[in-house]
Amino acid sequence: MTAKIKKPITPALIRKLHSIYSKNNIGVEDKKFLLLNLTEGRTDSTKDLTYSEAVYLSGFLNGRNGVSEKPITASEREIKKRRSGALSRMQKIGVDTTSWHSINTFCCDKRIMGKPFYNLTPEELLMLIKKLEAMINKIIENK
């Protein structure tokens, strides 16, 4: 029977934890106490944590002080998904999606949506995606 190898902590996550320690004024002794409790006495050093332990500790320390972000609702997730879909299709037809000015100029055209991208409702985003798909198909047909 083989032993399960745990994923080691990344240097970026070590830096993140050290940043969290300093933001929360966690001293050396408090840090050691936290790590010993988390790892059930296995280690008192951040670099000896497993990846999952480090992620848990990061979430715990951020949540404890109210710094963590609120969870995304289903409607917000759907809007993000539709915006992402619209932006990727805009990119396919040649709109510079690295510039909000270009995106909004494109969307403000009366033939497209008639208002800035960030003001589009979820239903309007679906309509925009359909229009962009039609434009992409037209471009493909003309090649």
Short description:
The protein has 143 residues and is mostly helical. It contains six helices and no strands.
Descriptive report:
This protein has 143 residues and is mainly alpha-helical. 60% of the residues lie in helices and 0% in strands. The protein contains six helices and no strands. It has helices at residues 11-23, 28-38, 51-64, 74-92, 100-108, 122-141. Helix 4 packs parallel to helix 6. The chain is elongated and about 65 Å long. It starts with 10 loop residues before the first helix and ends with a helix. The mean pLDDT is 86.
Topology:
Elements: H1 11-23, H2 28-38, H3 51-64, H4 74-92, H5 100-108, H6 122-141
Helix pairs in contact: 1-3, 4-6
List key phrases describing it:
60% helix; 6 helices; 143 residues; mainly alpha; 0% strand
Number of DSSP-assigned strands: 0
Helix content: 55-70%
Largest sheet: none
Low-confidence spans: pLDDT under 50, at least 5 residues? Answer: none
Provide the residue-averaged pLDDT: 86
Per DSSP, what share of the residues sits in E-state strands of 2 or more residues? under 5%
Topology order in helix (H) and strand (E) letters? HHHHHH
The Cα radius of gyration reads 24 Å
Specify the structural class: mainly alpha
Number of continuous helical runs: 6
**What is the subunit arrangement here?**
single chain
3D shape: elongated
How far is the N terminus from the C terminus? 59 Å
